[in-house]
Amino acid sequence: MTLLIMNDGGYGVMRGIQDKYFGGRQYYNELHTPDFTLLAQAIGLQAWSVERPRILTR
């Protein structure tokens, strides 16, 4: 099984709305998320972090 977590560190849709309607002022859309790679490895799973999508095209 492969699980892919895409983490933008916040609520991306809310960011877009706030950019459009509030001149880029950002409120309450940043999240402090765990390091999902370390979390998966801590429970014995193989896990990697990918910063650039090109890496996934193998």
From TrEMBL:
It comes from the Bacteria. GO terms for molecular function: catalytic activity; thiamine pyrophosphate binding. The lineage of its organism: Bacteria, Pseudomonadati, Pseudomonadota, Gammaproteobacteria, Enterobacterales. InterPro entries: THDP-binding, TPP_enzyme_TPP-bd. It comes from Enterobacter cancerogenus. One of its GO terms (biological process) is small molecule metabolic process. Residues 1-54 form the Thiamine pyrophosphate enzyme TPP-binding domain. This is Putative acetolactate synthase I/II/III large subunit.
